[in-house]
Each structure stands twice: as C-alpha cells, then as structure tokens.
Amino acid sequence: MAELDADAGYRGAVAARAAGITYRQLDYWARTALVEPTVRGAAGSGSQRLYGFRDILVLKLVKRLLDTGISLQQIRTAIEQLREAGINDLAQTTLMSDGASVYLCTSNDEVIDLVSRGQGVFGIAVGKVLREVETTLVSIDSQVPDPMDELAARRATRKIS
After folding, report:
1. 150 burial class (0-12, 13-18, 19+ CB within 10 angstroms)?
2. Are 35 and 59 contacting, i.e. CB atoms less than 8 angstroms apart?
3. What is the DSSP code (8-state) at residue 69?
C-alpha cells in the first residue's frame, strides 16, 4: 500500500471526495470556520484551499455525526473540544453521543462512565474513520495520473505526429 505524505495538501475536490461530502458542503464549512484548511486557506479569487490529512479526517467525522442526526451546533461544539484538547493520538479517541450532545472520550474508562449513566449512546471510533480516510486517499492518489507524465505523453504524441 502506498504511503501518505503527512505534510501533503489536498485540493478541495479531493478532500470532499475522501470525506464523502459535496464540494458545496466543504466550501460552506470552510467559510463558516467549522473545518478550515490548515495547509493553505483561500486567499482571494482563483486560489486553491489545501486540506491536510487531519482536516479531511475531521470533515469525515462531521459527516458521520450529521448522518446520525446530530445538529450542526452540537458538532461545532465537539470540533471545538477536539481542537482545544489538542489530542495528537486521534486513533485512540472515541466520539460518543446521546443524540443531543457529543462527548470526546480518550480512554475506555470515559466510555464506560458515559454508558453507565443509563442513557442510550452511540460511538464513532476515530481510529476506524482515520483508516478509512487513509484508504480513500491512497485510492484517489493512485487514480490521478501524474501531471508530469501526462504532459510528457502529450509532448511525445506531438513529436511523433
């Protein structure tokens, strides 16, 4: 399996595709500061936003939470908690929700404590989502031809003609 460059920037269309959202959602979430690109933000007309791997992971998590019926306001709160916590090991994190609020659990004890309150909750294992994003990005990268190869192929075709 190909390796992902942790410092690579992904264009909006690739980020949206990897997160399973529309480009319109991506644009709205960036403009409303829900999930902003960390590699390069928009700098005027014609500029390209570049999203990092972690940005795409957060986009996918937002999508999953929306799909479960969590309000965008609650998701904003959860994303802020995630940013403030500055958690580096997202693979060991679980997002839990009771349908109204989202909780960030970084240990099994926190998950057990939340479940033992007697409310119905569901969880999203961030590590699983992280691996899904990696797989999707590797798949997308392998489908996109290298622009240098395409240009070289065009030049070769012109020389032959």
Report:
1. exposed
2. yes
3. T
